Amino acid sequence: MEDTFELYNNQLVQQLIGPQDSNLKLIENMLEVEISSFGNQIKISGSNDAVKKARAALEILHHKLSKGIEIGEQEVKAAVRMSSDENTPPEEENSLADIVLKTKKRHIYPRSATQARYIQEMMKNEMVFGLGPAGTGKTYLAVALAVSMMLEGKIDKIILSRPAVEAGENLGFLPGDLKDKVDPYLRPLYDALYEMLPAEQVDKKLAIGEIEIAPLAFMRGRTLSNAFIILDEAQNTTPMQMKMFLTRLGENSRMVVNGDLSQVDLPRGIISGLKDALDTLDKVPGIGSVTFSAADVVRHGLVAKIVKAYEEKGKKQHGYD
Fold this sequence. Notes:
Blueprint: E1 2-6, H1 10-17, H2 22-31, E2 34-38, E3 41-45, H3 48-66, H4 73-84, H5 90-97, E4 101-102, E5 107-108, H6 113-124, E6 127-131, H7 138-151, E7 157-162, H8 178-185, H9 187-196, H10 199-208, E8 211-215, E9 227-231, H11 239-246, E10 254-259, H12 273-280, E11 287-291, H13 301-317
Parallel strand pairs: 6-10, 6-11, 7-8, 7-9, 9-10
Antiparallel strand pairs: 1-3, 2-3, 4-5
Helix pairs in contact: 1-3, 2-4, 3-4, 3-5, 6-7, 7-9, 11-12
């Protein structure tokens, strides 16, 4: 199949193609198509499905450029992911690509259709569960939305928490006081904040309590109002811990619970609080849930392949395809 179409803004065409046709080459490699440009005309050749996806990806990128958004390798990969998502109607692709979270240091755009739907769910619901493998942006995007809402004055406080269950390690044997022991374990949450806010602002907000990063046990007995509350690594909670955390939700607050049920580090025989909560709250209105897959991994390309290999191994072990 061949598809030829024309764009009418010379400047946008050059940005769309990229230096030495780099953007077109990336789409070619990802979708196994051939793309050539002649002036303002672009021709795509390949299988019917691949050509449709390539054209959709180019239209998403052209739409971004027309709104003044610069594109590079990550934006091209994101456009291909969105165009390849079978659950996204073509008429919704540009609206998903338009989603942006504004922080002090950068504007953050979804890099897959699932990421875009996840942001929409967090904006719409007071409680959202984000499920799936590492590298899919679950916690990063939740922190980005929290920072964006704080900067807009919609919330007063950001609370980030993780259960103190370690992947084969024991915090008790680490040197230092409780803060020294816990801070390295919560490092991914700090890293996300420092990518979105100037370091001095993060430090100030941590000092005055506008941003709080603490183990799950510190949440007991509190009611968290006017806050954006994020629980990371939620698969390592017990059902009682999860119930305790979920019932901390106060007025004008949002709560996001993230985890990967394939990475439970609890002692054998203990049910994951995340799984228990999903089963218990399945029919409760006002609670959103988004499931990511290996296709949504936005780290190094090899990470997606590793996650996919483990997913396939898990399916075989459980006896289904």
